[in-house]
Write a structure and sequence with these properties.
The structure is a homotrimer. Chain A is built from 14 helices and no strands. Chain A is mostly helical and about 260 residues long.
Chain lengths: ~260, ~260, ~260
């Protein structure tokens, strides 16, 4: 009977273990993130650079708040679909003062600006982080909140440009650019226009989209991003989006800065 | 004995469970896809946009068939390696009338046009979907089918161009562009030239490759893609490849449309 | 008792199995790689092309060593985050004579040149491969080795260019370009400058970054990459980075080759 009891006890332990495995099945299907020790086992200097240079120094530089650095970094991770790091950076963003509602809006915004699949690839990690931190549905922006008013003057310029350039090519694109983006997405109150601009510009640089950068950086600065912040954004982006993407963006940024001084 | 029987019964149940776990081990290593409920737990408006705007409206627009929208979408997912959504879209493509043989050819085609690793990253999901739907090897294109005939006139123009521009730089690239692509891949009968062009153009736009876009869009239209279809392709791509990639493509598309009207 | 013994024996087998599952839990969170048989179940011709054309032919072409082809391929996989294939190619690289220390440096180098998240996404696969092959920490480059001396003449040119172009835009970027890259990363002895150039150029082409390509290809050839090797690098890249990325790079490569003949 002792043996038997032992056997049954083992069985129930085992069943408990298997249930635990079932419970974590979804979590275990999220991409595994390397720890600093994992990095050390492959590249001790990468671990050192991550800890000392990046987290210990770059993130603490003046000129751009740690909250803004989190927005910039999330925009890179989502636009480059770097899902391995994303749970860590959702947590860091919340620690740095980005609100759950803002993270929610960042993901939806970047669905339009980096592609649907980039946004959906981040959902399960975000859900997991929200669940761990007890963030519930009532903290998230509604489907149809009261929208901010349209800036008619800026919309007139934008509409004229899109009608002239996109109109002859794709009426469908003109339609959704207006209805889905500039009369809906950009007016949602859960994320300030300046922050929407910050993640849009970051995503453009991270994906090498310099052709759209000038217009969006000007919009970002119209929306309140300072030149000093834009400058430090490039420093943050160099590490997360890679040096070449940022060097390719520099001449456009230079032109925007120069253009705004003249006017 | 009752306890013992119970113990052994539990054991066999447990063994069955563990075997099941083994069987699904491979499936569980595929990226987990978020449901609409998962999206709602993070961004209710993203779930709404996915359900109402994208699936409920964009996919049903006239001008481009749902079959073609599936080809465009698969090209984006593979070229941007958005593997989270890919099983869903392999299934949707089959529901929309894309044949298993065509999906097989799409993946092989995009190995050349988006990089080998992008194609292989989609294999396990496709295999899983094929197995679930009872699609077997005899429904897939052979390694060496009878190829369609070469269009000598168009090949003469292409060869002259590649010889002149690539010849001095990389004889190896000239060689495989001819043997692997234009005297093999494009002539495989499992996917029509017009559909090969549709996924090539979609992949180019999704990866911001505007430099190659003009030539391939002209080829697409020579192969039967209408201007209305190309226009609606851009609307579909805006959502899946992201707005900036499509806006960057617009001037090139405009030029191709205009050029074909003149001639 | 026999039954009981059998029961307990099963139990311990089962426990062993579950322990094994726990041990492989991390490994099972790495992306699953398709075998040639998996490919055959979806696209028999992709399996054939992989085996015959790519592994059987392209990798064996003269003009670029299999070691260099491994460096080029790893640069593509990391810069395009094609993590499905990466364990296979870490192993192949080691088989082809790339040293563990060099792989370690490749990953750290590409953190800067393709983005931090691209490098960290490869860490767990590399750690796994290193563990399987008994590669230990003492075979990896130290955090702070004795650096190679700076080439003052080339640094003077580079500094003047960066000060003039990046200086007015982002002092932070100027700072880290100097301290983190050209007075540290490029001088680390674990990977030769010529090999650093080879992976940098490969990463630029794989991500469509033609704006930075001319300068880095010239640096690569100054560092010892021959024109014949650069030419064959393009053939290798066509398969792994996709044809369009390489065709977009060709005019820049052509210009660099022509420019070096004149001077």
């Amino acid at each position: 009977m002792n043996l038997m009891k032992a056997g049954l006890a083992s069985l129930s332990l085992l069943l408990a273990a298997c249930t635990a495995t079932d419970k974590t099945a979804m979590a275990s299907r999220l991409p595994a993130a390397p720890s600093l020790d994992d990095m050390r086992a492959v590249s001790p200097v990468l671990a050192h650079n991550t800890e000392s240079t990046l987290l210990g120094e770059v993130w603490k530089r003046p000129g751009l708040s740690s909250r803004d650095r989190s927005l910039v970094t999330l925009a890179v991770l989502i636009s480059k679909q770097q899902t391995v790091e994303i749970a860590y950076h959702f947590n860091l963003a919340l620690d740095n003062g980005v609100k759950p509602a803002e993270i929610s809006e960042v993901i939806n915004h970047l669905a339009f600006y980096t592609g649907w699949g980039n946004a959906t690839a981040s959902i399960l990690s975000a859900k997991d982080v929200f669940a761990q931190r007890g963030i519930t549905a009532d903290q998230l922006p509604a489907v149809s909140p009261k929208l901010s008013p349209v800036d008619e003057a800026s919309e007139k310029v934008r509409t004229a440009f899109v009608d002239r350039t996109v109109g002859p090519v794709s009426p469908g694109l003109v339609h959704y650019t207006s209805t889905a983006l500039f009369h809906d997405l950009w007016l949602r109150p859960g994320l300030a226009p300046r922050d929407r601009s910050l993640i849009t510009v970051s995503a453009l640089i991270a994906t090498g989209q310099v052709a759209q950068l000038g217009a969006h950086l000007n919009r970002a600065m119209d929306n309140g991003l300072t030149q000093r912040e834009a400058s430090e954004m490039l420093t943050q982006l160099a590490f997360y989006a890679g040096w070449p993407n940022v060097f390719t963006a520099v001449p456009v940024v230079n032109e925007v800065f120069a253009g705004r001084k003249k006017s």
